[in-house]
Amino acid sequence: MALSLVADFELGKDVLPWLRAQRAASEARGAGSGGADVLENDYESLRVLNIERNGNIIYTYKDDKGNVVFGLYDCQTRQNELLYAFEKDLEVFSCSVNSERTLLAASLIQSTKEGKRNELQPGSKCLTLLVEIHPVNNVKVLKAVDSYIWVQFLYPHVESHPLPENHLLLISEEKYIEKFRVHVAQEDGNRVVIKNSGHLPRDRIAEDFVWAQWDMSEQRLYYIDLKKSKSILKCIQFYADESYNLMFEVPLDISLSNSGFKLVNFGCDYHQDREKLSKHLSLCVFTNHTGSLCVCYSPKCAAWEQITYSVFYIHKGHSKTFTTSLKNVDSHMTKGITFLNLDYYVAVYLPGHFFHLLNVQHSDLICHNLFLTGNNEMIDMLPHSPLQSLSGSLVLDCCSGKLYRAMLSQSSLLRLLQNTRLDCEKMATLHCALSCGQGAQFLEGQWRQRADLNTNRVLSDFLKIIQWISENVSACHSFDLIQEFIIASSYWSVYSEISNVDKLLPHSSVLTWNTEIPGITLVTEDTALPLMKVHSFKGYWEKLNSNLEYVKYAKPHFHYNNSVVRREWQNLISEEKTGKRRSTAYVRNILDNAIKVISNLEARNLEPRLTPLLQEEDSHQRLLMGLMVSELKDHFLRHLQGVEKKKIEQMVLDYISKLLDLICHILEASWRKHNLHSWVLHFNSRGSAAEFAVFHIMTRILEATNSLFLPLPPGFHTLHTILGVHCLPLHNLLHCIDSGVLLLTETAVTRLMKDLDNTEKNEKLKFSIIVRLPPLIGQKICRLWDHPMSSNIISRNHVMRLLQNYKKQPCILLNDMTMWMQNL
Hints:
By secondary structure, this protein is α+β, with helices and mostly antiparallel strands. It is about 35% helix and about 25% strand. The chain is built from 22 helices and 32 strands. The strands form seven sheets. A six-stranded mixed sheet has the order 19-15-16-17-18-32, with no helix packed on it. About 40% of the residues are buried. One of its GO terms (cellular component) is trans-Golgi network. InterPro entries: GSAP_C_dom, GSAP_fam. This is Gamma-secretase-activating protein isoform X6. It comes from Sapajus apella.
């Protein structure tokens, strides 16, 4: 399936064998059943409680005496550790441990078993405790109330030394959040105790909210409160020094007034009614390192015939609401919509019905989103149990106790690309696959030298995408497949090098998409931008603020295009034809830029190329390359403030080099498939079906690059012309030359004159070629052809030049005519 769920942790494999080993060791010592005792039928009590920021997993189970036992699985060492045990038959509701593993916070409720007496304090439903566990010592009651309480320790970035103060969040069902400051001290060696446990300082950081979400990785608290029936999303950022700031607030056009109370990612909530889960609203916030901020929302569903969900692209200033109809709906359906954070994408899926991949970076066009329905491999292979999306593309299946790492599978996307029929699906799948491999960086020589199996697999998948494109250049009718591949791959190849690349470089050749996507309808609306509550930004917040500033002020958008290069290049070519060219230093600087691009390209590709490209001057393409370097560099300098000029120059060289490299690889894929050899470069051979296939792909590459005005590798036009002479009848060949499909280069025509003898057929070809050459090249070529016709052409051109100078210098003309007649 295209969405790959790789298990990072499983209770049954990573914890249960350890518990059995502990039990066996305890029995061997004759100690009977201990705190780690677990029987075969106790597996149902083993469940995950929480996942902390450092990846450690807290779980619980009940031993054969009904005692509640807390354990921790260290994701780094892959080792288990017993934390604490309550000798009472209670249900654990929420749990968290501090980063030093010296304090344990837990909320417990009365056991649901009938006949059990109330183990809690009289009149309380939930008991929240703070326990010293290094070693096990005092227990402090934080709350004993008739409402549920969730607990969560804050994890500072600095973990090299223990902090004297720990901070604990308490989230109440009564709609308030408190932060406790817990001072600790070491006594008698390594013994850690709570100082002033009788009075722990606390701050109330939020109240009157109806929904909250915890981001364990980034230590952020999102919550929504209602102001005049409006839903206001707010975010609090906690820092390494345990301080915190309210970062922003933004109104959301959603109705939460009758939705009750809901928390997201505050541990695993096993107390939700699974029967009601499918009809409850779903709401979650996703971010990634690029500064994106998405709010995913699905309202309460009364009937399953039609389902609606919305994604608020806060960083883009708009929202998109999708509606789809379901088929074969079960009246007792208990599965709700699931939202998953996949970094550059958000996945929305309803098990057994549909799967929707939404592009977070480029949300403008619906064709960049992948929507699949019905009996599809991707849909059928996804888990049907409710999933909890955590930070860093982690997904928790609370029912099975498995923690997955969700990622898009490039090889599976390739299979989908090969089998799908709709242009919109091809477009979306191609972009998904390229984002997985980060584009053409996998073609670089440094990647080729690595022996890492995963890297080789991704490289192989990327080359398969190139092979598929070379074999299916006409597969799409709504867009040019080669154009889209070149632009998208070049974009992803430098994505990690440029912080604002999505604002400065095009990611797609398609600017508009008016075709509907089958099975889904879409409504796009502008949304209010967040009101930022701070004035100094770092890290993620700096990128988010940059995105918001771009939405406010970037009119028109900053995307680079080659229109200026087109005009300047045409001017230079026109000047060359008339013999009037501007300063030598200007042209030399442009050609030097081209030399840098070629050198950069050759340095990244250590293996010899199959095709004879990059082996000749081709001044026109070098001019185009050099002009693009100059213009793109100026574009970056205008918009990338604070970036060193040298770094910008290298980024420009990398981008254009990779663009040319992609063209070379598309051509090489076709060359390799058809097993062409070096003798193709000679004109005295006849064209084959294989040569015609390569000629066709080269023509499509030329069409794609011409409309975008992109440079081609030097030698491309020479090879294209040679294959054209091999494969086309004379009248078709001449038509291609006259219409600009074939460009006659000096290298190609020189080789034609030398390789072909002077048969009647070849004479006709040579003459037809010579009369179509620019005057300067034509004069050189005529001197290579030992034939009366070439002598005639040379004489005629000479007389024409003399006559053109007659009015200016008649005396010189008479002397030149006399000398020319004597030579005859």
